[in-house]
Amino acid sequence: MHHEHHRQQRNGQDGRGERLAQGLAWFSIALGAVELLAPRSVTRSLGMHGQETLVRAYGLREITKGVGILMADDPAPWVWARVAGDALDLGTLASAYGDDNPQRENVGMALLNVAGVTALDVYCAQLLSGRQSKARRSRRSQRPMRDYSDRSGFPRPAEEMRGAARDAAIPADMQTPAALRPFTTR
Amino acid sequence: MKALVWHGTQDIRCDTVPDPRIEERGDAIVQVTSCAICGSDLHLYDHFMPALKKGDVLGHEFMGEVVETGSSVRNLKVGDRVVVPFTIICGECEQCRRGNYSVCERTNRNRGLADTMFGHSTAGLFGYTHLTGGYAGGQAEYVRVPFADATHVKVPDSLADEQVLFLGDIFPTGWQAAIQCDIQPTDTVAIWGCGPVAQFAIRSAVLLGAKQVIAIDNVPERLDMARAGGAITINFDDESVTERLNELTQGKGPEKCIDAVGMEAHASGSIDSMVDRAKQAVMLGTDRPHVLREMMYVCRPAGTLSIPGVYGGFLDKIPFGAAMNKGLTIRMGQTHVNRWTDDLLRRIEQGQIDPSFVVTHRTTLEDGPEMYQTFRDKEDGCIKVVLTP
Predict the structure, then answer these.
(1) Which CATH architecture group holds B2-169+335-388?
(2) Whole-number pLDDT of residue B46
(3) Interchain pair A183, B252: CB under 8 A
(4) Topology classification of domain A2-142
(5) Tag placement on chain B: N or C end, fewer CB within 10 Å?
(6) pTM for this one?
(7) Spatial CA neighbour of B101 closest among B373, B273, B336
(8) Are residues A3 and B368 in contact, defined by beta-carbon separation less than 8 angstroms?
(9) ipTM of the assembly?
(10) A97 min Cα distance to partner chain B (Å)
């Protein structure tokens, strides 16, 4: 019963944060790949001609964060990094939301989308941060340092046992050839 | 019966499954009295090994009592107390006759799959994917033991379960790792990892007479246990492994290096492991071979690398130039368990070593799923878990 409770805890709320983070990570990688490989189509649709290098850099950033989330033991900082990236994206898009931009409508849609993703990122980051601090607290309380300094397995001090099994026969296929023993004596 | 069943990544449950029965004339059924979670089970838990199926019963370290035998079984009878090696062996093929039991030619019933993956099949293993036969494992109340005439080690009643249980895997694995080094009295043996196999490798290297044994890890209680066994320790969080190893060997490097870590090196312990972890995440890589890289780099020229740690697939950025130019000898493989068990059982009976030192957690089979996580996360000082069905 006790363990069932723990399992539910792990697969319940904690699992939700991680699943969401994984989804965001793959979204990051996919978006990053488009920005990195097809920056011109991005700038064209947003009326940001000449900004291809910036879009490529943003693509690299997205991929880094996506992979970071997937590989991290603790993905929370990476998801927070996504939130920071969202702010940068929003700033960049806002600067392109001028009356003189013929693609102003597209930029507006992009702003709305990024705002939505930002909300999702913040929610996920909070979910993960809460879980991490809980896990850290519980590790501190449940993991007292155990003392194994008397666990030798030997009947006498290890130093006295050194070489006690020198009578063991080393099979021919596991012996070091004599020519490879320049530094040892048998 | 109750058994620990794999349902998916990090999802192991204690389920009720059908009791095993005699399928072949050479089978025996063993009622399990004790079983353990092995470090290599964690590769299954984390799903780093291919060819797992939902519903697979796990476990390859177990012992118990024979309760039924097939009609052709001659060397076992009902009531015998046995440790069952994790490698299923016929005892008759060319490899078995040479003592290369872990590559028995006859016991992997999915040899086509293994031939495709590895070029040639290896032995069947209990509870260790369909690549090695898809045999049900021993984290259960009962197990079917195929090729039972050869696949067993009889143990005397005078020894407790925990003193002999590890003859089925981690003790001979640590022992073979040290034997493969052909240890000389002047040798320094460096051992990466301080998990259960490493703990036995440390003690084996000491018993075989190494001048100094150096153990590398970052978990304090595991380093404690390593020191208790006679090792000098290096905490890789606190100091450079290569610098310290060179310091301890007058700049020459250890003659013998043992990789008791394998494919899941600490993901954030080094930059190369972080890159490996990223590649794993996007399915561009299978293993994190940081230890292999470090061993090849730091080992003394003409030295020996011994690899009991399990690897599963394709390894990147291996400094093979260093290994080749330094003339290193590399010995590796799954353990030829029965090659060593008579000798090791004798040493246990003589009191040279008591393998139960490594047990840190004892509980019931029902608690198994929880203990997988505890063991994987090294929580609560967990080094070795023994389960009682």
Answers:
(1) Alpha-Beta Complex (3.90)
(2) 86
(3) yes
(4) Four Helix Bundle (Hemerythrin (Met), subunit A) (1.20.120)
(5) N
(6) 0.78
(7) B336
(8) no
(9) 0.90
(10) 35
